[in-house]
Design goal:
about 300 residues, mainly alpha, two-stranded antiparallel sheet, 2 strands, about 5% strand
């Protein structure tokens, strides 16, 4: 008797379950074939190039164009964060958080760091008052805490590129910051897909590996040296220092957002960017690298 005659056919329920799993995988990757890292690579590359082109064009045209673009993107990020926190039954007071965003980011560029601190404090107070109007209690404390987290995580950190942009060589400084952070993502992704074997933090981000971290470090150092020397006329060691600091901050930012998403039980912060997830899924590393890059560039590569 042929061995195949003794094999049982797949159960209808099992087939239906498999189809559901395939549909969920397709939705998670934007409807295309997922790569080994679990994303629709063609869509991710296309969206990444489009975003990069928009950023570069705004920096080359006028500084104010980049201010407007970043303000819009960060406002979308605040909206996504508020929606994600609702999954954890935290209702962020969105109106004061969004209003604070559209004031905080441009104010950092126009007035400077002191205005950033003032607007941040006022926004946090507005979040408190807005939520307190609905009543106090344990839920109110959670909502206010979530609102302050959103304001500190998105618009406050996103205002540091505005401080860089305000300098005479501001567009170049912002480009250094963005390129080095992108090098971390691209280097880590490539090394992780090709050689990732040892998980860095499996309970937080199972796909992040030590091999990927090594790839991020190498790419960041090379990117930092090249951009600081070529765009800012700085020293190679200043570029290397910016690269090392950036990869540490980018990894921390990525793991922090992964921890938040795991705690909330969600895969992505949103779905507006095919192959990437949401806006915050692209901003996670950039936001944490921003103050580090601003401080190191100000210290090691002073404006001439």
């Amino acid at each position: 008797m042929d061995r195949s005659d003794t094999m049982t056919a797949p159960r209808p329920g099992h087939q239906a379950s498999s189809r559901r799993e395939r549909r969920r995988a397709e939705q998670a990757t934007g409807g295309g074939a997922p790569s080994r890292a679990g994303r629709n690579l063609p869509a991710a590359i296309g969206v990444g190039l489009a975003l990069g082109g928009a950023v570069l064009a705004s920096l080359l045209v006028r500084k104010e164009a980049f201010v407007a673009l970043e303000t819009l993107v960060v406002a979308l990020g605040v909206w996504e964060l508020a929606g994600a926190l609702r999954q954890g039954h935290i209702r962020v007071p969105q109106p004061p958080a969004l209003l604070g965003t559209v004031v905080m980011v441009p104010a950092a560029y126009v007035v400077g760091g002191q205005s950033l601190l003032v607007v941040f404090v006022l926004t946090c107070l507005a979040v408190l008052v807005w939520r307190a109007v609905d009543g106090v209690g344990e839920q109110a404390v959670r909502d206010i805490t979530g609102g302050v987290l959103v304001v500190a995580y998105a618009p406050l950190l996103a205002a540091f590129p505005m401080l860089m942009l305000a300098e005479d060589d501001g567009p170049q400084r912002v480009l250094v910051f963005i390129i080095v952070t992108v090098c971390s993502d691209v280097g880590g992704y490539a090394a992780g897909v090709l050689a990732g074997r040892h998980p860095m933090a499996p309970s937080i981000s199972p796909k992040k590996s030590w091999e990927g971290f090594a790839g991020s470090t190498a790419a960041c150092v090379v990117g930092g040296v090249l951009t600081v020397v070529l765009l800012l006329d700085g020293t190679w060691w200043a570029g290397a220092a910016v690269g090392v600091a950036a990869v540490l901050a980018a990894t921390l930012g990525d793991l922090s957002e992964s921890m938040i998403k795991r705690d909330l039980g969600i895969k992505d912060m949103g779905s507006i960017l095919p192959g990437h997830g949401g806006v915050m899924d692209r901003l996670d590393s950039l936001l944490v690298v921003a103050p580090v890059a601003w401080a190191l560039l100000a210290l090691l590569v002073p404006v001439s």
